[in-house]
Amino acid sequence: MTTVERLDNINPLVFEKAENRITTDSDWDDLIYDPFDAREIFDLIRNINDPEHPLSLEELNVVEESKCEVDDSNSDVSVLFTPTIPHCSMASLIGLSIKLQLLRTLPSRFKVTVKITPGTHASEEAVNKQLADKERVAAALENPHLLQVINRCLNPKLRNRS
């Protein structure tokens, strides 16, 4: 079987990336309290690689700034993601990649919720249940092969290594 035959979405639509955020000196001043916002969350996940394509989740329109929510005062972050096709077999892997990236990069005070955008995936309920279950997420991340795949999604430099 060739690589192309295993792809769920052989020819995905590719979207233009958003402009990089312009930062000021005050953004880097540790003495100024700067609450997290949706754009910061989006910036943390936009460059995650798709597991099937050499494209980012932003380029595939899987993640969007408008589907990132933050309640900094209550330490809640919520992200909705949209798989490229309704039967995407990689939806759980994409959700795990988003969740792990946020857990690794945000302060530990944050509760991170990652879900599929309602109505966009055939197994939406099952995937959302899996992503919400701390024990299932922890068990998935203990699988060395799965963790290696997720790390390749999170770090493009690891993508070509086996």
Automatic annotation (TrEMBL):
InterPro entries per record: FSCA_dom_sf (IPR034904), MIP18 (IPR039796), MIP18-like (IPR002744)
Residue ranges constituting the MIP18 family-like domain according to the UniProt record: 40-115
Keywords from the named record: Chromosome partition
SUPFAM superfamilies: Fe-S cluster assembly (FSCA) domain-like
PANTHER family: CYTOSOLIC IRON-SULFUR ASSEMBLY COMPONENT 2B (PTHR12377:SF0), CYTOSOLIC IRON-SULFUR ASSEMBLY COMPONENT 2B-RELATED (PTHR12377)
GO BP terms, alphabetized: chromosome segregation; protein maturation
Annotated protein name in UniProt: Mitotic spindle-associated MMXD complex subunit MIP18
